[in-house]
Amino acid sequence: MLSLVNGDKTLSYRIYFVLADVHYEERKGLYIGQGITAMSRSGIFRVLHGVAVEMTERVYRLPSFNDVLEGEIFLQNLPSVVAANVLDPQQGERILDMCAAPGGKTTAIAILMRDKGEIVALDRSHNKVMDILKLAAEMDLNCIKAYKLDALKSVRKINEAGNVGITDNCTGATVTLGEDSDNCTGSSTKVNAEFTKAGEDSSTTSVVQTDDQKPDAKRYVSKALLRKNLRQMRNGPGRNNCSGGRVENSKGFLPNSFDRVLLDAPCSALGLRPRLFAGEETLESLRNHAKYQRKMFDQAVKLVRPGGVIVYSTCTINPGENEALVRYALDTYKFLSLGSQHPKVGGPGIVGSYKLSNQTYNEEWLTEQEAELVQRFDPSSSLDTIGFFIAKFDVGQKGD
Ligand SMILES: C[S@@+](CC[C@H](N)C(=O)[O-])C[C@H]1O[C@@H](n2cnc3c(N)ncnc32)[C@H](O)[C@@H]1O
């Protein structure tokens, strides 16, 4: 008998699992499962071995909220709401949400600010930025500005001429265009991208038909953009193009320019339910998540002003991406301190240490006092939430 628990207490879809050679190993409290895979219905017919389990009955009787009050309500799990509240945004402030799509926490923050102030919401995916814009429009929230930007490049660089701007990898021009792609050609075609400066931090890209072939450093087009436009001419704007196919690319932001920063980092997502371990993560991939998160955190530290706040959160139970990030942050940036969290709903973090096998140092986790200051949502606890982690940092004087 396979019983699953869903964090939102609704199971709208049939869920299939393929079980083969199931085994778990325990490493410092982290279970890594292999051989159990949650699959799509079509995917299940492509595997050669295994046992498929079809779950046909809901664990809970609560009906699905799909299509209920669409545009009126947006369901969130408890830890996400807590994360927005822990950030404690104030009206009139400038907030950065570094990895924002689909915009659940962004909109929760906007509501807490009563839509007064400015929330800059970033995601590296064009379509996901559209999702943020769509959600903000549905909820009638005007203080959210969403941009496509790789959060690893979210601090503007000062170039030799003293101008600010980031350079792309291909042309040296100040912005990269294209749907989910940073590749660019620099070549001119019938479909050009028009570069306009929209405010201090962003550039608006809108697609225009033109015969103007004059070379212009600020006019270039990516292959991805070309493909997208051909697709749009054939199929219409598509489900996500709520704002007429426009997406804003950002060139990055000035250091110390935000009152508060939320880094809801991409992670191994080992806290999500219902989900048996899919066997996709390895120890190496878990370490890679941690490295990626640290680089993003470094950007967050640069962007927040002295006296500001950074909230770091993940939906994983892997301490290497949670407590170890906090240790890194506190050891690297002496002007950061753990802030007391309100509301506090989850339990304390984990105290301990571990050694990365191919590195020469021990990564110490938190002291007991520090562990008390972070929130760890244990998916097996009676609170019945997804696994989640929240750390809040108060930012002191940065120095040079
Ligand atoms: C955990 S989800 C964010 C969920 C979101 N905060 C919410 O509450 O709705 C992580 C997001 O980070 C985005 N992402 C991953 N790497 C990124 C990067 N380098 N720069 C910007 N966004 C990135 C992913 O596209 C994904 O949408």
Tags for this model:
400 residues; alpha/beta; Rossmann fold; 2 domains; 8-stranded mixed β-sheet; 3-stranded antiparallel β-sheet; 16 strands; 22% helix; globular; disordered N terminus; binds S-adenosylmethionine
Structural commentary:
S-adenosyl-L-methionine binds at residues 99-105, 123, 150, 264. By secondary structure, the chain is α/β, with parallel strands linked by helices. It has 2 domains: 68-155 and 253-400, Rossmann fold (3-Layer(aba) Sandwich); 157-246, no CATH class. The protein is built from 8 helices and 16 strands. The strands form 4 sheets. Strands 4, 5, 6, 10, 11, 12, 15 and 16 form an 8-stranded mixed β-sheet that branches. It has a 3-stranded antiparallel β-sheet with strand order 2-1-3. Helix 2 (78-87) crosses helix 3 and helix 6 (283-303) packs across helix 7 (323-332). The protein binds S-adenosylmethionine.
In short:
It holds the Pfam family Methyltr_RsmB-F. This protein is an alpha/beta fold and 400 residues long.
Element order, helices and strands?
Answer: EEHEHEHEHEEEHEEHEHEEEHEE
* Assigned CATH architecture of the largest domain: 3-Layer(aba) Sandwich
Estimated helix fraction:
10-25%
Largest beta-sheet characterization: 8 strands, mixed
Mean pLDDT: 73
And the CATH topology of the largest domain? Rossmann fold
> What structural class is derived from the secondary structure elements?
alpha/beta
- Estimate nothing, just give the exact number of structural domains: 2
The hetero compounds bound to this protein are:
S-adenosylmethionine
Termini Cα gap: 60 Å
Number of strands: 16
Q: Write the CATH homologous superfamily of the largest domain.
A: Vaccinia Virus protein VP39
DSSP summary: helix tally: 8
Radius of gyration: 23 Å
Broad CATH class of the largest domain = Alpha Beta
Keywords: Methyltransferase, RNA-binding, S-adenosyl-L-methionine, Transferase
GO molecular function, one term: RNA methyltransferase activity
Pfam family, one: Methyltr_RsmB-F
Protein name: SAM-dependent MTase RsmB/NOP-type domain-containing protein
